[in-house]
Write the structure tokens for this entry.
Amino acid sequence: MSQIALELKDVQKTINKKEIIKGVSLTVRQGEVYGFIGPNGAGKTTTIRMIVGLMKPTGGDIKILGKSIQHDYKEAAQNVGAIVENPELYPFMTGMQNLKHFARMYQGITRERIEEVVSLVGLEKAIHTKVRKYSLGMRQRLGIAQAILHKPKVLILDEPTNGLDPAGMREVREYIRRLADEEQVAVVISSHLLSEIELICDRIGIIKHGEIITERYVNEDDSDAVEKKIKVVIDVNEPEDAMNVLKSMEVDVVQEGKQLIVQLQREEIPPVVKTLVEHHISIYGVTGIKATLEEQFLELTGGNVIE
Amino acid sequence: MSEYFKLLYNELFKIYVRKSTWAMYAVLTLLIIAPAVLILSFDDMQKEYTDNWREELQKENEEYQKDMAEMEESPGDFVEEYNSQTIAKNNYYLENDIKPLNYGAWTFTLENAGLVSVVSLLTIIIGAGIISNEYRWGTIKLLLIRPISRTKILLSKLTSVFLFALCTMIFLFLISLLTGAIFFGFEGMNPYYVVQTAEGFEHVRIVNEIFSEYGYKVVNLVMMTTLAFMISTIFKNSSLAIGIGIFLLLGGNMVVGIFSQYEWAKYILFANIDLKQYETGNVWIEGMTLGFSITMLMIYFVVFVVLSWLVFNKRDVAGH
Ligand SMILES: Nc1ncnc2c1ncn2[C@@H]1O[C@H](COP(=O)(O)OP(=O)(O)OP(=O)(O)O)[C@@H](O)[C@H]1O
Ligand SMILES: [Mg+2]
């Protein structure tokens, strides 16, 4: 396993006697993309503010590559890049002036590096336009550009796909994946868009009321689904015949046009298909549908209700 | 060290890239040129002395005396004082055989010392915005996640406010000199000039006089700007800081006036801001000395900066 890049140990935050974060612990390894999901007001942004040093935790510790953000601020902050909430940049400056401004706050960021980042986020055409005239998506891209300028080892993105068009989202997703895979960057992404998270993350943590209530690998759910029934869609030409066969096998089945939706356990799939074939029913497709993260999320958090 | 220069560059860049800053300079330029036009259109405000200046001065004195005699019945204090002062000054010229300096660029620049208050006002506006604007724009979040301590960021901001003041003072000086030269001509590289001091009249270099006049007013600029900087850092609100800063810039004397009968009034900041009181000998409150005032000013300055620093360093950067 690769080295731990980001570590939160029992991090707490109390504001005005209200416990907003109640002991969050998590670790993100180099090259891992961690999805941070939770309903509105769960404490995602607050946790992120503490990771980047904007807020001081009232308890616990946060370490970036082993350096505490509270006690070794400079060394820790050196390796962090972030967008916190909306990508707010200087509106009266051009995109380039904004990037140069932040580049001056690090050692040794070259002109070439700035240009490389600009083309990575696809802002070449608009980079000399004032940020005031940018669309939300363009500001989001510039926000990502300033976050990765100094090649941080830990990248924190608070809702980075907010405001991006589908093509933009895909680009960002691919870029984040590449950063993680090729440059071993540890990435933390918070989002409401669960489908987005599912596509890029290796692991997700669900936070609610300031606590992480569950943490899992994105492709882990197959294993604990052994006992569970999976939805299987079977495409056939003669749905009525197939229905009769399936009913005689005593399985749960619903017909939808030429598709049959069957609830099966994993091991039951091959015998069912075999039986259908033996009854001379032509099968055009068998698709298993995983319960989406979205459904699990709603199940876990009890719906998107702010309490 | 180079890191600090880069921070200063950033801060100055953010000040000077904005159009509102240039609008300030436009207003300041207008405030320099407009009086020049006025003075030029009122011919008698710029007395020209020829080689016959001894007779001209004597004639002037006679006229002033006649004026004062006529006004015996309804004496206007101000006019009388002005006239008798001018007579005394003219006599000083005659006794010491000094030809009075004709009106020109240097004299005009000296008279513009009043515009240092405008520079103070602009600096207060910049100083009050330099931190609170970052909160307003939301950029504070991007500024404070860099591997640079908050202390350094705060100091670079305060320093760049004073650099702005320095640039603006130089601008005021040069544009005044240039405008004066264009409208009234140039009196020479380093002319002498007669001023009134506590001990009577003195013949001094006008450049020294300009520096001391501007210099005395800069004390107020520095103190009120630092105060506004502190208020805006603590309350994240530039309007409040600008309001208080400008009010005290113009009305600080009043505060001292109200409490002047008390012994502790000398510890009030505003009693110590006008260092010219020690040159003219017209000390506000008995027992105050130059050393005392400078010590008090330094204490106030340090307190303002330390309070800003404590709040800025400790504070959580949460929503707006
Ligand atoms: N400065 C603050 N003072 C007091 N309470 C705060 C402060 N900032 C946040 N909170 C509270 O902390 C809780 C968590 O807020 P946070 O912004 O971290 O949520 P979030 O998970 O980012 O939500 P969202 O999905 O809406 O962005 C909320 O209940 C909020 O009201
Ligand atoms: Mg949030």
Summary: Chain B has a mean pLDDT of 86. Residues A 15-16, 20, 38, 40-46; B 318-319 surround adenosine-5'-triphosphate (ligand 1) (CB under 6 Å). Chain B has one domain: 2-49+100-314.
